[in-house]
Design brief:
Layout (H helix, E strand, L loop, with lengths): L12 H8 L2 H8 L2 H9 L3 H11 L1 H20 L4 H13 L19 H19 L3 H8 L20 H19 L11 H8 L6 H14 L2
Bound molecules: fe (ii) ion (2 copies).
Length: 222
């Protein structure tokens, strides 16, 4: 089974060189059974992931890690098997909308307010790309930045959001933030786990779950 392993054959040389740094990690993550199975069962996922990898290798690796984390969190929260699978797909696809944006914007150390707004549109693009295949998962994806200090795209959760969907959005947001904060970014170095824990307790209500997510993510670091 090829799963969702992307091919680098058609990538420009500079992308291949950059992505090779993470190739081992990418291969390991894409072989994680829930990820490989999600991709094998949904043929629309792999071409999107291939585009993400060719354009933003770091965002591709981040998405694989978020998919693994989101799956583990869903497992720990005892979501149904179907809902765990949705969390895997949501993790893989949550940032795929970045393929619609110009690459230069993600390599800058500082961003203007206008550029920040452009980056925020990745959620709308992710939502549209996923909605074409899976409306429920698209609803999970669209909420992945709504537990941040400055939430977007909506200022706050809709009051009529079903509780399961709300829970899935929160789990995806936790997986996304844990991985982002514990990873080096173009504009900052990775935070240490204690600082991540302190920060996330201001935004998520279950300290044990935060601690668990940090532990899973830390084990992925090499
Ligand atoms: Fe995102
Ligand atoms: Fe993300």
């Amino acid at each position: 089974m090829n799963g969702c392993r992307a091919t680098l054959e058609n990538s420009p040389p500079e992308v291949v060189q950059f992505a090779t740094v993470n190739l081992h990690e990418q291969q390991q993550l894409s072989s994680y059974p829930p990820i490989a199975e999600a991709c094998a069962a949904r043929p629309w996922i792999t071409p999107l992931l291939q585009q993400l990898q060719a354009t933003y290798p770091d965002a591709y690796t981040h998405s694989l890690r978020v998919a693994l984390l989101a799956t583990k969190l869903a497992e720990r929260e005892q979501l149904s098997a179907d809902d765990q699978r949705r969390m895997t797909v949501a993790g893989l696809m949550h940032d795929v909308g970045k393929i619609a944006l110009a690459p230069e914007i993600f390599s800058q150390e500082t961003l203007s307010p206008e550029q920040r707004l452009v980056i925020q549109t990745h959620i709308r693009h992710s939502y549209e790309l996923v909605k074409a295949h899976d409306e429920t998962t698209a609803q999970i994806v669209v909420g992945h930045h709504e537990s941040q200090r400055n939430p977007y795209p909506r200022a706050q959760q809709r009051a009529d959001t079903p509780s399961l969907l709300h829970k899935q959005q929160k789990l995806l947001a936790l997986a996304d933030q844990v991985d982002s904060l514990l990873s080096d970014q173009a504009y900052r170095e990775a935070w240490d786990p204690d600082s991540v824990f302190q920060y996330l307790t201001q935004h998520f209500t279950d300290p044990e779950l935060i601690d668990y997510a940090i532990g899973v993510r830390s084990e992925l670091s090499t």
